[in-house]
Amino acid sequence: MFTANNRTLYSHIQQIPAGSYVTIKKDTLEQAELTTYYIHSHSNVYQDLGQLYQNLDKVSDSVFQRLIQSVQGKTIIVPLSGGYDSRYIISMLVKLRYKNIVCYTYGKTDSYEVENSKAIAKSLGLKWFFIEYNEKRWSEIEKSIWKDYCFRSFLCSSIPHLQEIIALMQLTTNPDFPREGVIVPGFCGDLLGGSFLLYQRESKQMECNKNWITTYIINNHFSCQQLNQTYYNYIEKDIEECIFNYNIDISTREGVQSFLEAWFTVHRPSKYVIQSNRLYELFGYEWRMPLWDQEFMEFWYQVPTKYRKGKFL
Fold first, then answer.
1. Confidence class of residue 29 from pLDDT cuts 50, 70 and 90?
2. Which of 238, 211, 235 is nearest to 17 (CA)?
3. How far is CA 157 from CA 5, 49, 267, 281, in A?
4. N or C: which terminus of the chain has fewer CB atoms within 10 Å of its end residue's CB?
5. How many CB atoms lie within 10 A of CB 207?
């Protein structure tokens, strides 16, 4: 799904990892220097649960007021599933009395996600669009659109996000659907909320050393096929470089958990998920990711792990 570190699918092309920048000296790439300026690390600051709820409320208001200000009155279009992330987005917009909102969902007509989405939109008084997915519609995708989107979103580092392409093709031919607006997906909310913390069984098996970390990452993120020794060594070296560059203390269980989340965030969401927004651009829409607002991230990176497990908070 994604390439590791600064690698791409081409041996002669590298990329700048998330949270890093490159300084080029004397106009030559041979002296280019990569610097890491931001680490998605977790500090596990202690706060009581009541204070956490109050802080989350304040941060939420701040994040979504920024979102509302940034769209300058344009229609906010929310891909609404039955999950927490998109539901949180529309709930905050309604709470802050933003009026210009529409929602859409897609899938099979008997999907519980579709039923939830419709019920949520109705309860909040929002206009809702549904696009049925079936084999016929997949076969009717225009090759030119498919190729154009894959080119935009590929960037030699992650596969294209394809599941919404039918929805956007159908919606943009519907005269009732806004042709201008800002699409606001719930991307990365589950990451901050704790969906990718270790399960209890994995947590019990955890060891606080780089060998366990390396083995865990390779087994869980490079497991589509058996790796030959050459590739295994490359990946192992990449992970060890990350352990050094992130400067996270992995001698504690909290430190190991923090490193695993930081590694995952720099690789999958920062490549695959962010590139998913290119689909909206293909159809002429702006996009925003309020659930990766920096203030929002910094709040969650201080929430005790016990309140993130199982998406408790």
1. low
2. 238
3. 10, 40, 10, 19
4. N
5. 13
- Confidence grade of residue 203 (pLDDT, cut at 50, 70, 90): confident
> What one-letter code names the amino acid at 292?
W
Contacts with 10 (C-beta within 8 Å, 6 or more apart), sequence order = 156
At residue 148, what are phi and psi to the nearest 5 degrees? -60, -45
Grade residue 147 by pLDDT with cuts at 50, 70 and 90. Answer: confident
Q: What would the two tokens of residue 147 be?
A: 């190729």
- Cα–Cα distance measured from residue 244 to residue 257, given in angstroms and rounded to the nearest whole number: 16
- Whole-angstrom Cα distance, residue 265 to residue 275? 14
Is 72 within 8 Å of 180 (Cβ atoms)? no
Per-residue b/e over 243-255, b at no fewer than 16 CB within 10 Å? bebbebebeeebb
For 149, how many CA atoms within 13 A lie in the half-sphere containing its CB?
A: 25
Neighbouring residues of 50: CB distance < 8 A, sequence distance ≥ 6:
none
Residue 244, pLDDT > 90, answer no
96-136 tens-digit pLDDT: 999 999 999 999 998 999 999 999 999 999 999 999 999 88
- Residue pair 239/214 in contact by the 8 Å Cβ criterion: yes
The number of residues in the chain equals 313
Q: Given pLDDT bands bounded at 50, 70 and 90, which one contains residue 43?
A: confident
Token digits for 52? 């956490």
Give the residue among 49, 93, 41 at the shortest CA–CA distance from 67.
93
What per-residue confidence (pLDDT) applies to 166? 93
49 within 8 A of 61, measured Cβ to Cβ: no
Secondary structure, 3-state, 208-246: CCHHHHHHHHHHHHCCCCCCCHHHHHHHHHHHHHHHHHH
Instruction: Please tell me the least confidently modeled range out of 3-17, 89-103, 172-186.
Output: 3-17
Question: Residue 156 — φ and ψ, nearest 5°?
Answer: 65, 15
